[in-house]
Amino acid sequence: MYADLGGDQTFLTGKTVLVTGATSGIGAGLVGELLKLGDSKPAKIVLLARSKTKVEATAAQITAAGVEASYYLADLSSPKEVVRAAKQIVAGEKKLSVAVLNAGIWDTSEERKVQADGLEVHYATNYLQMVLLVETLTPLLAKNKPSRFAVTGSFTGYSISKGELNFEYLSGAAQPPTNPHGGGAFPYSQSKLSQHVWVKAAAPTLPEGVTLNVACPGFVVSDIDIVKSFKKKLGFLFPVVKFVMGGRTTAEGCQTLLHIAASTKMDGINGQFIDWGFKSATVVKRLPVDPKFYPGSDPKFFGPAVIAPTPADDALVKKLYDETAVIAKKFK
Asked: What is the pLDDT of residue 52?
């Protein structure tokens, strides 16, 4: 269901890698894949999570496989906690070479939901935390070059948002006239599209030798709450939807993320979007977006994986980058 982009997976050999959201879903799958790398596996895996009980269990799994582990705690919906934890990582981890920014949420509430600072929860938890982690951890990764940021993106940037970033929708201040996906689907897709766009602006500003890329895992059938909600809502139709959307196992879905984190083929690649495509084009037939930037949106595209640039609208990219900088500054 996916094709290797090539290159061996030796970039992480003997290095230290940070994984956020590693206690469930794609993050947990990625940890499992890292531990299967044999002689190429990292020397240490650093975890950033909210639940102490869950992260301790994941750390124990890592050490049992002969890899050193450490962890830090933070509620990633709180920008202040994100910055605090990132500073702790900078102080406590001297050899960090790869940061896999995977954590995120898809809230199923029908009404707009905000966190303690008044920020829409998807904006804060999926997008702003990524920005703050990149900005705070960059000096540490710059000391361990070549180094990489690897971000878990989403095809919902085109399947729901159609590649069009709307700042009112992003903040959750407004919803589109019709939201057939229900709940937090549209704000979620806007937050993931924002990752895609911000990376274009941020990647060239990073120190030489530090790269930043986004990977699309596709529709992964994992143990996270939103997938459980889909299963419950769809009932006996879920297997059909899974097939139409090219549903993947967790191990399969995390391969794009593993690729941008570990493959030597990604040496020097910066500011790109990695897309596996779909087994079926049914889900994307209606989407008027440029396949150059979202290759999975092309009805003729079923794989193999491709590297694509982030969206081309430079004015929009700059607007998002500048406005985010103003918001992020409040929490540093």
From this structure: 96
Reported for 68-76, long-range contacts at CB under 8 A and 24+ positions apart, including other chains, are 68/43, 68/44, 69/44, 69/45, 70/44, 70/46, 71/46, 71/47, 72/46, 72/47, 72/48, 73/48, 73/49, 74/48, 74/49, 74/50, 75/50, 76/20, 76/48, 76/50, 76/103, 76/125, 76/129
- Asked whether residue 5 is domain-assigned, the answer is no
Distances (CA, A) of 91 to 71, 88, 132, 140, 162: 13, 5, 16, 9, 41
Burial of 176 (0-12, 13-18, 19+ CB in 10 A): middle
Q: Could you tell me if residue 8 is inside a domain?
A: no
What tens digit of pLDDT does each residue of 68-92 get?
Answer: 999 999 999 999 999 999 999 999 9
Q: What CATH number does residue 102 fall under?
A: 3.40.50.720
Amino acid at 269: I
Residues 6+ apart with CB under 8 A from 321: 198, 201, 202
Model pTM above 0.90? no
Tell me which residue of 25, 84, 85, 22 sits closest to 59, measured CA to CA.
Answer: 22
Contact (CB, 8 A) for 145 and 210: yes
> What is the tally of structural domains in the chain?
1
In a domain, 7, yes or no: no
